[in-house]
Amino acid sequence: MTQHVDNLDCIFNPRSIAVAGVSEERGNLGRDFLAALVDFSFAGALYAINPKGGQILGNKIYGSLLEVPGPVDYVIGCIPAKLTENLLELCVQKRVKVLHLFTAGFGELDSRGAEIEAKLAKIAHQGGVRIIGPNGMGIYHPAGGISFSSNLPKEAGNIAFISQSGGNAFQAIRLGNNRSLYFSKVISYGNALDLNETDFFEYCAKDPKTTIIAAYIEGVRDGQAFIKALVQATQNKPVVLVKGGRGKAGARAIASHTGSLAGNEVVWEAVFKQTRAIRADTIEDMIETICVLQYYPKTVGGRVCIVGFSGGVGVLATDACETAGLSLPVLDTSVQEELKTFAFFSNAAGSIYSNPVDTPLVVMDRSALLRILNIVARAENIDWIFAHLRLGVGSDDFSREASLKQLAETFIEFGQAGVKSVVLVIDPTATEAYPKTVAEIREDAFQAGILVSSSFTSAAKAVASVVEYRATVLRLRNSLKSVDE
Amino acid sequence: MTQHVDNLDCIFNPRSIAVAGVSEERGNLGRDFLAALVDFSFAGALYAINPKGGQILGNKIYGSLLEVPGPVDYVIGCIPAKLTENLLELCVQKRVKVLHLFTAGFGELDSRGAEIEAKLAKIAHQGGVRIIGPNGMGIYHPAGGISFSSNLPKEAGNIAFISQSGGNAFQAIRLGNNRSLYFSKVISYGNALDLNETDFFEYCAKDPKTTIIAAYIEGVRDGQAFIKALVQATQNKPVVLVKGGRGKAGARAIASHTGSLAGNEVVWEAVFKQTRAIRADTIEDMIETICVLQYYPKTVGGRVCIVGFSGGVGVLATDACETAGLSLPVLDTSVQEELKTFAFFSNAAGSIYSNPVDTPLVVMDRSALLRILNIVARAENIDWIFAHLRLGVGSDDFSREASLKQLAETFIEFGQAGVKSVVLVIDPTATEAYPKTVAEIREDAFQAGILVSSSFTSAAKAVASVVEYRATVLRLRNSLKSVDE
């Protein structure tokens, strides 16, 4: 009798979970999984399993899955690879719905491992058990009390992350946590023996708790099905996707990692072109792009004004924006005239007021900076203000920690008003001089929904990706409209 | 009578300096210049000038340059633009050798400013006074007791930085200071009314205190002369060059900044191809590239082995290296076999030992990590080890601050032994969790001559630039040899 799981909801909302392979041995990850479920206040029944029996974290350890008294929806397998087939057979007997295999040592090792995977897939299919993994961290679903580690935030959010790598899942959740980004669901699915990227894309596309989908993918099992799922997902939700394994060595690396086939880079470029998925090169880039999607939901244009405290920095910032595909329009004449009549500007040689706006001599004065920002804010041909924060060049107040914070607060305050979309770029010299203060500034800004970046290059890249995405969406919407008419 | 300065030594080693335009007013930069010279223990005579007279920093303020009793070699002008012509004429009368004009408001403003510049150039030329600037910070020459700010390191080093931007000069010196890189001379020359990039390249190429030349250039005055000077400079010393103003808005930005003409990007690409100058896109990239030149003077090859703690991170690190032009050879079979027989690896499913080397389960053990590094060190087809440091994924020790530091120290220790060139990439999640500890690790590493980078992308870019440069140098040397034979 097959017992297929048509809806993946049971994965994220199981009634009970059993962890197989727990022990009090140092480095035992089964214990970590169990502890995380306890920490996250998983509401269903929890069971620990190890043939040796005993007690763990206040729970009885059952000698076998079959000894567990109640029904078990979800099993986490932290057992050696050679015992996996047996565990799976017990899952079938116990009518378990999902087996998550943390266990590695299958298809990523050799062809023998791939054969075992195929055999497991067959047993699972016939027995009606779905498999996540092997070689993955499984599920992080804070709203449902499920996590693969205690050391992760308990806050639930609106972002889904479908990740073939457990390490990258941790990185994304942690980077997100420091940027006020929280997750609806994170799935680390490893070798994708059974459930794969396509299944999870289909699920997340429909999941009402998810408004943004992110993914790290090394290889896909079924290209046609995947593209179909991706197209569907991108129709309603922005998708930010990192494709791992671009070159020759990259392809070898992913074969060793998850036993995946990288696929041709040319094909992947076509995938990004065909679908509306936004490409990011690294997990950091992915998170910055999500910040832009989340913090500035309504900003459509790509016209930037740079406000900073050095002509040279302004020039390189301009280069970074233009290279990324953003534009830096000359400020309206009326705005320029107003800046010119502003005392600081008319007196201060070395000031630049066309765009970038360079304000070297106003740096000591918070209200002067706010006044400048308010003048720039009236420029109708500007969508974004990229503000630059760095150490001063003289013995002026600006070189001091307190002043840095004051200026940062001025930018944040102005950004919160929402007239223009403000991005804050903090120079590494400032971060290296005052790491604690900059950490505080970052926290304040991220909580206010203002992206902080450590370089114009990465800020411009993230903003440009989103601007391009929104332009495509608008174009498609308009073309559909004209078809309707 | 003309009195040309043939040798620029007098700029860097004047017998006396006068600062014109000092006052105790808030934000007066003249006072900062004077204070910096005092702080840097400038050994020659120092004079302060302001028509209002008075006292400053224990010095008498002279009413005019002509009132100064002794000879004056070097004048720093912090006066309004409209008084500049008069000051220059006084310099001619006083037989001053060099006038540095901090003053801005000339060619970068409008065509009228450009006309004034031309007039000043004529007076200076006829009167035998050389001019640095206007609109530049001037000279930082710590060995000679000259600095344009008190807030800069007093240590002298081997790097010259020729910068058209004062802000970028500050940034480079400060970033360098945190990376054990120190400067022989830094010149912030602004609008280049008289002395320009070509003069400074010629000087630095011959300067025995300078072994590496860096430059930030917006536009050049005489293309032919510049290329000749650049070719000559690159013949004996590596040159790392940032060209500001790539696109349309970038060209506008540099016109507003230093009144320069950007020149065509295509032409600049040809310049980089024709000369051996290494191109960097940002000041941060420039400094990382200099770190690679300085820390790893003998590493010629571009073969990298990645050692880290996550398969997914290893994949993206591989992509970053390959994209930058570095190779990731498969480790010698004997090395792989040794890693395989190593207990941690044979037991730990999920480990990868071909390259990247992924060591998830040894993270708790410092001696195990050292043993792994020593095995990898025997691989003859590897020049570089890129080590990755990040937070752990379980409740293991590795997630803790102390452990992070221990592992970092292991990498640093191994790097110091010098068998392979080690670069440390510290994940932003680690930096965000433990900013203070990571700051300490960075300091330790930089002092040990080990590059620390916050991403594989930037580390790979810096290393690849230097590897390419050294390959070109070797190729040219070999072709010259074969001509000799």
Quick recap:
2 copies of one chain form a homodimer. Chain A is α/β, with parallel strands linked by helices and 485 residues long. The first copy, chain A, is built from 18 helices and 19 strands.
Describe what you observe in this structure.
2 copies of one chain form a homodimer. Chain A is an alpha/beta fold. Chain A has helices at about 10, 30-40, 85-95, 110-125, 165-175, 195-205, 225-235, 250-260, 265-275, 285-295, 310-325, 335-340, 345, 365-375, 400-415, 430-435, 435-445, 455-485; strands spanning about 15-20, 45-50, 55, 60, 75, 100, 130, 140, 155-165, 185-190, 210-215, 240-245, 280, 305-310, 350-355, 355-360, 385-390, 420-425, 450-455. In chain A, the strands form 3 sheets. Chain A has a 7-stranded mixed beta sheet with strand order 3-4-2-1-5-6-7, with helices on both faces. A 6-stranded mixed beta sheet of chain A has the order 8-10-9-11-12-13, with helices on both faces. In chain A, strands 15-16-14-17-18-19 form a 6-stranded mixed beta sheet, sandwiched between helices. In chain A, strand 6 (about 100), helix 4 (about 110-125) and strand 7 (about 130) form a beta-alpha-beta unit. The first copy, chain A, is elongated and about 85 Å long. At the A-B interface, helix 2, helix 5, helix 8, helix 11 and helix 16 of A face helix 2, helix 5, helix 8, helix 11 and helix 16 of B.
Features of the shown structure:
elongated, homodimer, seven-stranded mixed beta sheet, disordered N terminus, six-stranded mixed beta sheet, 485 residues, alpha/beta, 18 helices
